[in-house]
Structures are given as structure tokens and as C-alpha cells.
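If I may wish for something, please sit down with the protein I am sending here and say whether C-alpha cells and residues agree:
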Amino acid sequence: MVATSDEWIMTRVGIRERHIAGPDEATSDMAAAAARCALVQRGIDASELNAIIVCTVTPDMMFPSTACLVQHALGAKGAWGFDLIAACSGFVYGLVTGAHLVAAGTHRKVLVIGSDTMSRIIDYTDRSTCVLFGDGAGAMLIEPTADGEQGPDGPGFIDFMGEVDGSGGNALKMPAGGSRMPASHATVDQRMHFVHQEGQAVFKYASRKMYEVCRDLLARNSVSVDDVAVMIPHQANLRIINAAAERLGIPPEKVVINIERYGNTTAATIPLATHDAIADGRLKKGGVALFAAVGAGYTVGASLWRWAY
């Protein structure tokens, strides 16, 4: 469809294959499927959930929220919820939001879902974006630690660091479809309902910020790279991931990379990569996980967790 090749894509972004939702599948369908997997793995019923946070930039529709659709699909009658929009940083933001709901003592089971159907907002005549994105979803359940487990060496949430820089908002956006530029014949004809990206600007910002936010978070918590079991970064670009890990001094075997199999699934990349880290034995109970992401907005986030599952 565009002037490119497998070699060009692999050398620049590291993607070999992607998954695309079927014509009858939407973001809420993938989110509900991922949620069911998490609930089965934990051995609990959806009725036990207190809250559902859906991190996405591709909701089924402007309203109702995707969280409402997922709650209904799951039959989670005791849960409230909402959508969280932070683009590729969405899941990192969702996790820390869920952690604080639990830490406040008001919630015992918060389901955080990252789900995006990026294929619906990609212009497949635009080489700068059409080779990057795929569809996918992942979910994690956040619960309180057991009595006696609290403390700096106990399991669970350790710390978070976030940042937004709205001055870079124009570098990665979907221009039309909101209140500033409602849908019209003109916006459709001008292909304004697709992702628009200034690739070099995004690459430079993400390369710098992913390193800086991880560096500062580790330093603030006196956590060395030796203490980190795995770094699980947002899967946007292989060069960005490798550059950040190299500057941090984190060895390749500790960096979870699956971009070659899924592409950039936006809010779903980190839960998908976490699933792989658990499956291949790199993330085990007691291990420290470093999550990091940079996304449109610009949004930046990193969090530290001591794995409790």
C-alpha cells in the first residue's frame, strides 16, 4: 500500500507482525476478553470488582465510556469505572490511579485495562504511521497487600513519576472528531480522523524522556539497576527502548521487548509485555518491575512495583 519493505520497517522500528481486530470487534470487546482472562487467572468473579479503569484512545464511541460497556459485558454489577486517556502512557497512569484507590482503603479489587483498536484510526497511505500500530488489549487486577506485608520491601506499588508537556501536543494527534473540529465532509475528505505524527519530533522527545523519567524514579527510591528484575517499556520503537535501557545501564536480558510481534498497541503494550515477562520467567514474585512510557500529549510516566503474584 505504501513504498516500504520488511527491511525498512525492521531496521527503523523493529516490527515484524501485528494483529488487527475483525470488522465486528471493537475496543470494548478486546477489553472484556482481556478482563475475563485476568479474572479467570485470579480465580474470582466479576461481581467482586469495585472499579474498572479502561485506558484507551480508541473508545467504541465518544459516550458512554468504554468502562461502562466493559462493566456490562462482564456483569460486574458492583463496580463503577471510567476511561483514562493518556495515549501510550495510559496504562502506566491507570495502574497508579488504581493503586491509589486501593491504598486509600476504599477499594479492594480494581481492574485496570489497556485496550486500543488503532487500526481504525490509521491512514494506510501514510508510511510514517501505518507501519507502526496494531490492535490489542491486556488487563491487570490490583488488590491490597496482605496484613504484615506492608513496608519498603513488601510487595506491590512502590512509587510513580509522571509528567505532561502540552507544548508537544501537535506532534502526535488525531485532529478531527472532537469539539474543536467536529466531523464534517471536509474533515473526512482531508483525512483528519486519522493519526497525524511528526515522527522525528516524537522520536527525539520519547528517547530523552523515557530515560530521564526512569533515571529520576530509580534515584528517588534508591533502587539500582541491579535491583530491577525487568524493565517493561511501552513498545513504540525498538531504537527508543534500546537507547533508554543502554543509558540506564539495564542489561538487554532484563528489558522486555515484544514489539516485533504486536507493533505499537498504545495502551495495551505494557500489559501484553508483562504477560510475556511472566510467561518466560523473567518476572516472578518478589521481583521489581519498572514500567515506563511516553505518549501523545506529550505524556510521560514510570512506576516501580514489587511483583506480588
Q: What stands out?
A: The beta strands are 51-55, 80-84, 110-117, 135-142, 156-164, 172-173, 196-197, 228-233, 288-295, 299-306. The chain has two domains: 6-142, 156-306. The CA atoms of residues 215 and 276 lie 24 Å apart. Residues 199-220 form the longest helix (22 residues).
